[in-house]
Amino acid sequence: MSATTFGWLVLAFPLLGMLTVALGYRSLPGRSAGWIGTGAIFLAFLAALGALISMQGHSPEHRQMVSSLWSYASTVGVDAQVSILVDPLSVFMILIVSGVSTLIHLYSIPYMNEDRGFARYFSYLNFFVFSMLLLVLAGNFLLLIVGWAFVGAASYLLISFWYRRTTATRAGIKAFVINVVGDAGLVLGTYFIFKHTGTLDFLKAFHATEVGAFGHSSNNGDLLAGCLLLLVGAFAKSAQIPLHTWLPDAMEGPTPVSALIHAATMVTAGVYLIARMHPLFERAPAAQDVGAIVGALTLLIAGTIAIVQTDIKRVIAYSTMSQIGYMIMGVSVGAYAAGLFHLMTHAFFKALLFMGAGSIIGAMAGEQSLEKMGGFRKVMPFTYGAFIVGGLALSGIPPFSGFFSKDDILLVTAERGGWHWALYVVGYIGAFLTAIYTFRMIFRAFHGELVPEAQELKAGKLHHAERPTNPATGEVEDTDVGFPGPFHTIAERALPMRVAMGLLAVGALGSGLVQIPKVDFVIDDFLRPSFADSPLYASESHTRSGLLIFGIVLGTLLGLAGIAIAHRVWVARPGTAEVFRTRLRPLYVLFANKWYFDDLIGGLVVRPAGALGSFAKDTFERVFVDDTLVGGTTGLVRAGSAAVRAAQSGFVRYYAALLVLGVAGVGFYFLLQS
Amino acid sequence: MLWLPAACGLLGAMLSLLGRRIGVVQVTDIPPGETSVPANPLSRLSASGALALIGSLAALALAIGYIADYSPGSHGLTHVTDVVWIAELGIHYKLGIDGLNVFMLGLTTLLFAAAVIAANLREWERPRLFYVNFMLAESAVLGALLAQDLALFVAFFDLMLIPFYFLIGVWGKEPGRVKATIKLVIYTLVGSLLMLAAAVATGVLAAQQGGGHITFVLSSLQATPLSRGSQEWIFLFFAAAFLVKMPAFPLHGWMPDGYKAMPIEVLMVFSGVLSKVGAYGFLRIVLPLYPQAAAHFQTLMLLIALASIIYGSVTAFTQTDARLIAGYSSMAQLGFITLGIFSLNPQGAQGALLQMVNHGLVVAALLFIVALLAQRAGGSEDVRDMGGIAFRAPVLATIFLVVALATLAMPGSSNFVGEFLILLGVFKAKLAIAVIAFTGVVMASVYALRLFIRAMHNRAGPGVQSREITVRDGAVLVPLLAVIIFMALYPQLALRRSEGSAKLAVASAQRAAAPALETGSHGKPALGRTLAVAEASAAVKGRE
Residue B94 — φ and ψ, nearest 5°? Predict the structure, then answer.
């Protein structure tokens, strides 16, 4: 089979899985919905492997393959097909997406076991994976936009999965609307590109750009506008400032959902977009600079917020934001392979961390606050081990995977020279912060005194809350439906969870080895055909040894220093944190209030729009429309109402009958005539 | 043979009138207040309702036949019926199908069939009269869509209002029924009179100009364009009539009360079809006959459309009455359609045409869902009384979700391609307006999801009883849903058939607007180069 056939299969399996689970929600026995869902994604993963093998059979110049099924909208100059583009970049993405998703599905089976929305959960999850695969396989802008929006919709559904919680529905609509802002940016950006290239097809548009659709000097006004608008889309989906506020709130969804969409797949869409659009971005360097700077700011700001968060999932969420910042910065400075490499390693270790968090939350019976955790090291050894592996990879300690990929990005950034050195410095400050917040989380959850829940576990019982409460508000949950459930599962007691976490731990530990500077370049070489036209890509391999070694040493030292500080503050000398909080009060307040982004957006956008709406409803409609436009005719109204009353009372029948007969008569007249 | 679809409605109407006398199925006597579902749903079917249903289904079958028959890529009139009606005035009874109306025909017959099914699900006072009016409305709408003579169009346009006056005035919901009827009468009457005057003026002036006989046949009128000055005032008259119908800001004064008062089955077709006839009138009548005026007033019309979008959207997300949320959202969506028409290029027109069909489908389904929600929320249509309805109604929730996502024109939903083309058209015509219109896209997601969440999710309201959708209600919704999903997957079906006619409809207005555009926007005319590049890129060899 050709690679594109495999590509279509990759899309078909999750879609079929979704339909099977959704349509059979009443008749599927037991927990089979979970296994069907997992199986569907696993088949998609196998198909992705098939695409990989089939594609590698072609020579590197022929590894970009397009296939289209039917014409979607081709009219008046628009030429959109339902078409996929199978090339090394898309194959790389489908492998990661389907692979990690399979494990997360597997993990979900025991995790969601007690939930009444079990089948609904798996049909949403399959739909999500389908959407994400569609996004990365799309062969033209229109289909990309469709995948893009489907991902947003699926994430909305999963965030507000427990839909009786107002916190969850509010988080869901917030995520959806911010994603629509991104969609709008993407559509408008597409218009700018279409205006000059006259096509929506990726390869044709890139080719047209190459032969001068935007002129031959860089930073053409329309191209720049187009690229900046594409960045709006990328920032919204990848939670970069200032469009990031939905991501921490999205932690309302079940924890495997956080692992899947808010760590491993959806939020990386922006990174993929910039990499895919590189022929455009490289001709608009100003847009690349914007991307790089926003990525750098995000990684720094998110890192500072993560240090003061007390909700374990939110710490990981902010860490995700920060890590995506690295990737966005990477692909924006031309470090495509490095950025995508980090995307891969991050998918492994971040999914692993979220799964570990899910396990702890299980042991805590839904409680997510780090303040109330402690001492789980002894009683949850497997989860602890997973956390350590994920944490070390996240902190960039060699030889864990995150070390190689993060270092790779920063190295290429430094090589760009000039002001890019500032990004390099920010990147290492971020790495330092990463190590601190990661191990703060680990030390607080696993070390120290055993909390009552941990003691219960030690005694062989798993703590289950009598009346589950919403961890965000303390409200008693509505357990009729869509409830997080009084029963929870931990990795120590569920084999599928252990298998999923174990495999991810292997990835987090070892996946860095595929690309070691000066040793092997698997990712570089594999992706090269997709970036054959990029002058920036070619330069990646010319690495100065001095800089390389400096980076490795600096990265390792900063990581270790961060861990040491975390140990000192939260393990060796408890109470130090309190000292910091009082001494650095202004900073603490800034971080704890998340740099006031929520308030800013609320004040600048949400509240004015609401006020405008209230004005329209309460004042304009009433005073202008009703009183002035309509009120002038009140006299007529009074006079006319008598007529209507008469109409009701009987002659209406006559009137209608006459009317019908008259019209019918005319109709029959023509009938006879024709 | 084109009188057939229109006649079907009429036939249905007449049969309904005869209903009791034929006595196919007698209306069972259900005491008032009895709400339990009878064992045999047919026993609820009144004779007149059944006959109306037959008429509407026949019309639907014919319309499907016409769609299948219409060859893609063509743009001329087919199935023309042309009879001299009033020879002295040059008025012809001329009907015809082309790419502009073939899918509107499908929409109209589908929505009427769905609405008649919906109407059959409950008891009506004076059912024969109700169905007579209902089917008469269908005939009139079909006539207006098919008319190829200006006078005939005006006649059908006015005729279609009459049954609606009765449907609201007699079967409307209290309180506010009378007030709503009066408002609707006043607004639309003023519009109709303006339109009548404008139509007469067109015929007379064209005859003067041509020096020949008076005629109202559209193709002849198009051949003798009026002077620019006459075009302009006539344009404004027509625009007023059509904008009231849509409604557009600030001519929507009748809409809130009208929406609240109409029985939901009536509102389904009113909102789904009648509002589109106004937009359709722009494409059929105004742009071809008054191209210079259309170009002259382009910016004004775009601004009115933009105001409708923004005003409709912000109002929609502060309303708590579910019907009014649908109403104001409809106002915003009609704003998008107007935007597409007055971008005066083929992309905008194509998008507008597609959007008319898709919005009609979606809004009708949405309104019917509102009725189902009200049944589950103790009869209240206020979202504050709803909540948590999804609990025992996963199928209803899924259907509602699909409809809500289509309402906000999420990419991949049926409404997306139309909106994409509309905004592309506006983008080419006036960049700034396109950018502002995108705020409407974002706000649509707020009001549509807000409606969905407040009805289906969160904690259950005090009077809420979550029940799954019944098979009978499904009979109304499922066909609509099937078409909505089909249009999401394969919009090309409609696009291919409407392309030629859409291009033709805007061609002269586009020409009239072209010089204005070149001086207006100092951007270089990128079209020539775009084409060159398109050709170059077509040369990119297929890599597989």
Answer: -120, 120
Instruction: Give one DSSP letter per residue of B88-148, joined into a string.
Output: GGTEEEEEEE-TTTHHHHHHHHHHHHHHHHHHHTS--SSHHHHHHHHHHHHHHHHHHHHB-
| Ranges under pLDDT 50 in chain B | 1, 19-43, 516-544
Q: Do A213 and B533 touch (CB under 8 A)?
A: yes
Distance in angstroms between the alpha carbons of the first and the last residue of chain B: 49
Q: Which residues of B touch A176 (CB under 8 A)?
A: 445, 449
Asked if the peptide bond before residue B250 counts as cis, ω within 30 degrees of 0, the response is yes
CB contact under 8 A, A480 and B391: yes
**Type of residue at A400:** F
Listed by number, the residues of chain A in 530-589 with a beta carbon closer than 8 Å to a beta carbon of chain B are none
Within B430-526, where are the H helices? 431-456, 471-489, 492-520
- Cβ-based burial of A384 (10 A; exposed 0-12, middle 13-18, buried ≥19): buried
DSSP string, B419-452: HHHHHHHHHHH-HHHHHHHHHHHHHHHHHHHHHH
Instruction: State how far residue B248 is from chain A, nearest Cα, in angstroms.
Output: 12
In this prediction, the residues of chain A whose per-residue pLDDT falls under 70 are: 478-486, 538-544, 624-674
Which ranges constitute the DSSP H helices of B211-246? 218-223, 228-245
Interface of A with B in 338-367 (CB under 8 A): none
Separation CA A331–CA A321 (nearest Å): 15
pLDDT of residue A134: 94
**Window A:180-239, CB contacts with B under 8 Å:** 180-181, 183-184, 187-188, 191, 194-199, 201, 203-205, 207-208, 211-213
| Distance of alpha carbon A607 from alpha carbon A618, whole angstroms | 16
Closest CA to A187 of B338, B418, B448: B418
The answer to whether B81 contacts A670, with C-beta atoms less than 8 Å apart, is: yes
Whose CA is closest to B451, among B394, B396, B391, B386? B386
Mapped onto helix, strand or coil, the DSSP state of residue A81 is: strand
Q: Which of B424, B426, B439, B489 to mutate to test the interface with A (most CBs of A within 10 A)?
A: B424
DSSP state of A476: B
- ipTM computed for the complex: 0.87
Could you say which of A163, A177, A667 has the minimum Cβ distance to residue B457?
Answer: A163
Closest-CA residue to A558 (of A427, A375, A380): A427
Query: Which residue type occupies B112?
Result: F
Question: Among A58, A389, A131, which residue's Cα sits nearest to residue B405?
Answer: A131
What residues 7-46 of chain A have any CB closer than 8 A to a CB of chain B? 22, 25
Interface contact A199-B537, CB threshold 8 A: yes
Cα A594 to Cα A294, A314, A406: the distances in Å are 16, 11, 25
Residue type at B27 in one-letter notation: V
Nearest to A348 by CA among A133, A511, A516: A511
Compute the half-sphere exposure of residue B211: CA atoms within 13 Å on the CB side of its CA: 0
Distance from CA of B173 to the nearest CA of A (A): 14
Nearest CA in chain B to A649: B170
d(CA A501, CA A489): 14
Q: Is the Cβ of A672 closer than 8 Å to some Cβ of chain B?
A: no
Model pLDDT for residues A336-361, shown as the tens digit of each residue: 888 999 999 999 999 999 999 989 88
- Rounded distance between C-alpha atoms, residue B244 and residue B252, angstroms: 6
Nearest to A124 by CA among A171, A156, A147: A156
Distances (CA, A) of B463 to A478, B338, B423: 17, 40, 42
Q: What is the pTM of this model?
A: 0.88
Q: Choose among B147, B165, B167, B168: nearest CA to B156.
A: B147
